[in-house]
Amino acid sequence: MTDYANPLLRIEKLCTRFDTLDGAATAVDGIDFDVYAGETLGLVGESGCGKSVTALSILRLLRCPPAHIEGRILFEGRDLLQLDSDAVRAVRGREISMIFQEPMMSLNPVITIGEQVAEGVRLHERLSRRQSWQRAVEMLQKVQIPSPETRATQYPHKFSGGMRQRAMIAMALVCGPKLILADEPTTALDVTIQAQIMSLMMMLKQELNTAIVLITHDLGIVAETASRVIVMYAGKVMEEALVRDLFKDPRHPYTRGLLGSVPVIGRGKGSSRRLQEIPGMVPNPLQMPAGCRFNPRCTQAMPRCCNEPPPMVRLGEHRRVNCWLEADKYDPWHCSKSKT
Description:
Blueprint: E1 9-20, E2 23-35, E3 40-44, H1 51-58, E4 67-75, E5 78-79, H2 85-91, E6 96-99, H3 103-106, H4 113-125, H5 129-142, H6 148-151, H7 161-173, E7 179-183, H8 191-208, E8 211-216, H9 219-225, E9 228-233, E10 236-242, H10 243-248, H11 253-260, E11 312-316, E12 319-322, H12 324-327, H13 332-336
Parallel strand pairs: 3-8, 3-9, 6-7, 7-8
Antiparallel strand pairs: 1-2, 1-4, 4-5, 9-10, 10-12, 11-12
Helix pairs in contact: 4-5, 4-7, 5-7, 7-8
């Protein structure tokens, strides 16, 4: 049971922009959200909406400059943006870990898998080389890699895509972190291996009581694994809800568009429900539209949507929407008290 009293991670007004030759590009624009101990939070949206940049900002893995990160990232009360480099390195891997989207690009091709898993243990727990190697072998066994003693001595090119992702999970969990940032962990895998990887992650999450921020565009995975979900678009949070509430009653037009564009088995010729699409493209970060970011693509946009940014309206516990359609249902005083 998730304890919603005290957040493990609290993001406040996070803004990440990049200096380019054409000006400043804002990838994440003033977002807020909480992550609680032991929960799985889904972070969804189209490519380019700021999901991965949010995760990289949390761990301060962006080079500054050209990146500039503002706001507050409170992990157990500590603002990670105020820590020096040594203190941040002590948090990475030990308390917060990340599973990257492309394991072949993240694993070092000239270092054995065992050494790469053991490195974090030696760094954070000050174990001997022999002890850290043994821990790495045990972790490879835990993530269900066969013959872990032999596999630990092999290099990444000897592993299949699914096994490389298992090795990445072993690296992320070997020090027992409290939070995992999983960035599209199953994108490059076939559906059978995807199911195996997600099942493994959920099993280890329960065993270690680790919170997971699952960054994905696959709403099916979110429906099966997450308890809450945050929908992002063009660097902004559009909607937040418990998963069951989001799928049952999506409030933002963008959320409804995402759900309507998901293929459903059996839907096709002769079906009464067509596969929908969201018209247009995600806006250029250098040329964001005025008002609501989604208004050029929204079929329900009003004149107000094109001129005034909508307020974030809180509809209940763990339920908020960034849309004028919902804001207009409340009086201005109610809106002014909403979390923005």
